[in-house]
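::Encoded backbone::
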Amino acid sequence: MKRIEIAVGIIINTEQAIFVTQRLKDSHLAGYWEFPGGKVESGEDAKQALRRELQEEVGIEMTHSSLLTTLEYDYPDRQLTLHFFIVDNWKGQPEGREGQVSRWIDVSQLNVAEFPEANQPVITELKYRYRTA
C-alpha cells in the first residue's frame, strides 16, 4: 500500500477558535470535520504544500506557521503521513472554496468523534495546549 503524505493546517485565531471544514459527501470519510490541507506533491515539502492547499481550499495566504507534530496513520485502504501545522497568522478570510461547509469552533468544543481517527491525538493535544485557566 502506498503511503500518502498530507500537510494539515490548524488555523487558530486570537480567540482560540479553529477553522474547520466538512468533508464532501463523495469523498473518503464523508461528513467528518477536518482541518484544511492536502497531499504533498512531488517537489514540495510539507510547508510548501500547506501554503498551496490553504490558498486553493480556503483562500488564505499563510504568513506564519509552526509544525505541531507529524503522525503516521494506517486506514484499511491507505497509509498516511500527516504533518500538522499551527497556522496563527494569515492574510484573507478563510472560507470553503471547494463546496465544503466551514465554520470556526472554539478549541474546547472540538469533538474527536466528529473528526477522522487520524486527527484524534492532535485534537487531544490542542485541547490540552489551549485550555483556559
Notes: The chain has a mean pLDDT of 92. The radius of gyration is 14 Å. The domain at 3-129 is CATH 3.90.79.10 (Nucleoside Triphosphate Pyrophosphohydrolase).
